[in-house]
Amino acid sequence: MRVLGIDPGLTRCGLGVVDGGRSRSVTCVDVGVARTPADGQLPDRLAAVADAVERWMDTHHPEVVAIERVFSQHNVRSVMGTAQVSGVVALAAARRGLPVAFHTPSEVKAAVSGSGRADKKQVTTMVTRVLGLDAAPKPADAADALALAVCHLWRAPMASRLAEAEARAAELARAHKARLKSAQRGTGRGGGGR
């Protein structure tokens, strides 16, 4: 499976493409950052990020897009920019019929480093090691994008099995309720004692 990981940001949007199979082995296909000028107009900046993401999608043909879920920060302006970029990326994926998965920063950290509280340096170190890279991806946004892609590759099979189990449990519950309802109707009609 090929995953495009996106670390959304208005000034720097991390992009990372990773291939993975059934085992936990993963390979880095490409990594980079889309940059926009901090003093640019918001619509122009969003368009620039969208153009970069679409070029990556056209070049690498991912099967799924993994985006970091926006989380609460003290800087509301930063959160707004991150959320807007996430929306632009999700729209670009939807237009291509690509599934989109959102992962929280702690999910990504836990998947890659084993700790949901790992710092950026630890995540970068583990991404470099897991992907067998000669050098750590820079800036941190690029490493985070690769971490998102790796996280999705490693978590997707588990999430899929969990969704299948939940669907099966729901189906069994519906069947059980139907049998109970049928049994209650049967005893209510005429069945009393002998």
Automatic annotation (TrEMBL):
Family annotation (SUPFAM superfamilies): Ribonuclease H-like (SSF53098)
Keywords associated with the record: Cytoplasm, DNA damage, DNA recombination, DNA repair, DNA-binding, Endonuclease, Hydrolase, Magnesium, Metal-binding, Nuclease
Amino acids binding Mg(2+) 1: D7, D141
Pfam families: RuvC
A GO term from the CC aspect: Holliday junction resolvase complex
DNA-binding among keywords: yes
Active-site positions on this chain: D7, E68, D141
Class of this enzyme: hydrolase
GO biological process: DNA recombination; DNA repair
Cofactor names: Mg(2+)
Primary location: cytoplasm
Molecular functions (GO terms): crossover junction DNA endonuclease activity; DNA binding; magnesium ion binding
Origin superkingdom: Bacteria
Function per UniProt: The RuvA-RuvB-RuvC complex processes Holliday junction (HJ) DNA during genetic recombination and DNA repair. Endonuclease that resolves HJ intermediates. Cleaves cruciform DNA by making single-stranded nicks across the HJ at symmetrical positions within the homologous arms, yielding a 5'-phosphate and a 3'-hydroxyl group; requires a central core of homology in the junction. The consensus cleavage sequence is 5'-(A/T)TT(C/G)-3'. Cleavage occurs on the 3'-side of the TT dinucleotide at the point of strand exchange.
Complexes and interactors: Homodimer which binds Holliday junction (HJ) DNA. The HJ becomes 2-fold symmetrical on binding to RuvC with unstacked arms; it has a different conformation from HJ DNA in complex with RuvA. In the full resolvosome a probable DNA-RuvA(4)-RuvB(12)-RuvC(2) complex forms which resolves the HJ.
Similarity-based family: Belongs to the RuvC family.
Protein name per Swiss-Prot or TrEMBL: Crossover junction endodeoxyribonuclease RuvC
Organism: Saccharopolyspora montiporae
Organismal lineage: Bacteria, Bacillati, Actinomycetota, Actinomycetes, Pseudonocardiales
